[in-house]
RNA polymerase sigma factor
Amino acid sequence: MDLDRIYRAEYGRCVATLTRVLGDIGLAEEAVQDAFAVAVQKWEQPPPNPGAWIVTTARNRAIDRLRRESTREARHAQALLLHQPEEPEEVGPVRDDELRMIFTCCHPALSPLARTALTLRLLGGLEVAEIARAYLVPEATVAQRIVRAKKKIRDAGIPYRVPGAAELPDRLTSVLTVLYLVFNEGYTSTSGQLLRTDLCQEAVRLARALADLMPDEPEVIGLLALLLLTEARRPARTGPSGELMVLAEQDRSLWDGDLIAEGHELVRRCLRRARPGPYQLQAAINAVHTDGSATDWAQVLALYDQLLAHVPTPVVALNRAVAVAEVHGPALALAIVDELDLPGYHLLPATRADLLTRLGRTSAALAAYDEAITLATNDAERAFLTTRRARLTQDTRPPAL
């Protein structure tokens, strides 16, 4: 029985549903964790609907916990819970529990990092290490922010409720960031296997719900297009043995044509609005990658120039350097990469290793590969880099006599 897979797939939904039922994020999370502990003891095989079983068990565990409490607040909460229908009527513009949870965690009273870290932990079921990797910050920093965010919600009495239509735009940036990071963790998992299909699909589903909710927001449409065009390539992202396949080596016949067509149409919708933003530009880059049998790298570079103007970060500059190498050669790209500072980010030395290899600087390339392999946390990425390094040493080995 793959309880870990069920936990990752159902945890976020169960916490979101229980938060709506219980009205308390902390209590909901504890109750869901208790329910999974019960499942470990009782399940020989998963029930037909594991999520429903967890929600029901968690609700009962929450009632038992409140019964043991002697405070007036606990007795009041217990009375409300006992007389609450199993499926309370939902009101307001956001009708998806998980989407409502995202907007709630993205309350303006919380810091930007706290908003996204808390949502990724509660909804995506991501571990602290996975969130820290997404933000390129120490694990201790993320753990502290999550604890403080929960305390802030409790002490400030931040309600779990559907935000009004007027409040939605103010929380949009954080919501888009959360969906983007959830998808990224699914597409390149922090540890273990390369892909977490459940997270990719959940991020796409929530992005569709957000687009239905806010169809006039270009960045919402841009994010959905970006996720669809990236998701379309997921079947070709790994080889027969689960090995990482880079874009240039992927079997394009495995790409999902329907998702590509939908993503391209959304990109065209964004272009007609002429209000470019970071997600729209990333979607446009992915549209170029999925248009025809070969990538127009000059067009990709032009789009990265625009993206870097909107988001002048080292990660964007590193991605732009890859396009520079294809258009202007590896020497110019290496000069750009050598100016970047991204401590702990394995793709920086990995990119540098590839550029050095193309320039024939084998010793420096081997050292860069060693650094990248040490920093990589995903098994598939580490194996990919190790294979590339081994190939480089074989190419430079003197012929046998």
